[in-house]
Amino acid sequence: MTAPCLRFDLDVAEPIPDIGSSEPFATPKCMWSLVKMQTEPVGILMMALPEGGVGKYELVNALTEGLGPALSLRAKGVGATWPRKDPAAPLDAVGPSRFLTSRADVLNRGPRITVAVCTREQPQGLERCLASLVTQVYPRFSILVVDNAPVTTRIKSIVARARSESIAIDYVVEPRAGLSWARNRAWQWVPEGIIAWIDDDEVADRFWLAELARGFVEHPSAAAVSGIMLPAELRTPAQIQFEQYGGHHKQRGFATAVFSPLTGAEYSPLFPLPPFGTGGNMAFRRESLAEIGGFDTALGAGTLSGGAEDTRAFTEVLLDGGTVVYQPTAVTYHFHRESAEALRRQMFSYGAGLTAYYMSVLMSRPRCLRDVVGLVPRFLNEALGSASLRSGDLPAEFPANLRWANRGGLVTGPFRYLGARVIARRLDRLVAGTAERRGSVGESDP
Q1: Whole-angstrom distance, CA of residue 380 vs CA of residue 378
Q2: In the list 187, 337, 421, 445, which could disulfide-bond 298, CB 3.0-4.6 Å?
Q3: pTM
Q4: Is residue 28 a contact partner of residue 49, using CB atoms and an 8 Å limit?
Q5: 168 SS3 class
Q6: CB within 8 Å of 442: residues ≥ 6 apart
């Protein structure tokens, strides 16, 4: 891929379009498309975009070459054939797919969901995110915005403007800075049911909540369900490079996966690569979070650790014998970092978060030491090996400083976690003391 890259969704049940080569921001050099059939994600198509664009017949040929078996199977399921004989006409289906039929059942009996958006002084991103949430095709949900350590009233104002008669949007403040503090405030605020998370730098597919609900309906024992995070745009070299490195999905793909004690031999709860899920697209049962004690406040954005609070929560559920479902039909779109420096910092944080995660596990579960030591060879291969999901198959021109930033984070992560624990305890004591003093004079919490 070369920036800028044209990024769009393509539902092949609809007439196949001609793809032009002009965009407002620049002339795209390539195209990246999430391919669907009757709204069901099938796969990703990437190809060069010549100066004259790509015609519909050429696009059908590219789809057949890249995703032919999957498209043929889904077309057969609705009484149609692939490749398309007439790209300009809709797919000649005799009826809805089994996927759409089952979604109707989910919409009818799916659980009530509270969508939590944790944000800190990101009004534009939050406004864009909320706009995608209020149009969700799902009948039973509400929205909770957690304003994390605010210094202005901008977030509160955006929530007030976004409220509507049809969708309840609540607002709460978490005074302690850090994503895990905000996540914990969210699930503690919700009395029962399912809590789903999306970040303020994402937007949701209109069927996102319906597909998260599918995970719980089709797997009633699931404690958590995660979806797939895909790029919202690929305008800059940094955004391209992050996606080349695996993006947020790290080649997990579009096949549903179920993780439980029965799959422990294949997918160790202590080895989250490919990931069990990601924090910007996940949902937990409220009681499951209560059982594991919520999110580790020494992990996550806003701490020295930098990340991995989501990974730690998934691991805790699995180590306690619970079930996690990866449901890739639940799609969100993430706006990757635009600049090289922002991406370098992100790569460092991801490396630090991973080894901080292991330190977090070992400090709370020392008996896992033998299992963690046994994973070291596999970990080193994934972190440094030429065929790993983290660094394999990268183009020769991939910036070396990004690799080294990630490795630098891996080295420092355990020490950063220890420092983050100290800070988290101080924050907890500080806020607890403030609440106690306010209570003594009859004041309310922030």
Answers
A1: 5
A2: 421
A3: 0.93
A4: yes
A5: coil
A6: none
Tell me what the mean pLDDT of segment 379-383 comes to.
77
Quote the strand ranges of 81-138, DSSP E: 113-119
Contact partners, residue 433, CB within 8 Å, separation at least 6: none
The pLDDT score that the predictor gives to residue 390 is 57
- Whose structure tokens read 């922030």? 446
What's the CA gap between 242 and 56, in Å, rounded?
29
The alpha carbon of residue 291 and the mean position of all alpha carbons in its chain are separated, in whole angstroms, by 23
Region of 113 (left: φ > 0; alpha: ψ -120 to 50; beta: rest) is beta
Taking Cα atoms as reference points, which of 183, 232, 179 lies closest to residue 204? 232
Distance between CA atoms of 327 and 256, rounded to whole angstroms?
5
Percent of the chain with pLDDT over 70: 93
Q: Alpha-carbon dihedral of residues 190, 191, 192, 196, nearest 10 degrees?
A: 0
CATH of domain 103-427: 3.90.550.10
Cβ atoms of residues 289 and 407 within 8 Å: no
As a three-state string, the secondary structure of 169-212 is EEEEEECCCCHHHHHHHHHHHCCCCEEEECCCCEEECCCHHHHH
* pLDDT tens string 186-233: 999 999 999 999 999 999 999 999 999 999 999 999 999 999 999 999
Cα dist from 312 to 3, 272, 300, 316, 356, whole Å? 34, 9, 10, 6, 10
- CA within 13 Å, CB half, 110: 26
CATH 3.90.550.10 in the chain: give the residue spans: 103-427
Q: Given a cut of 70, is residue 162 above it in pLDDT?
A: yes
Residue type, 224: A
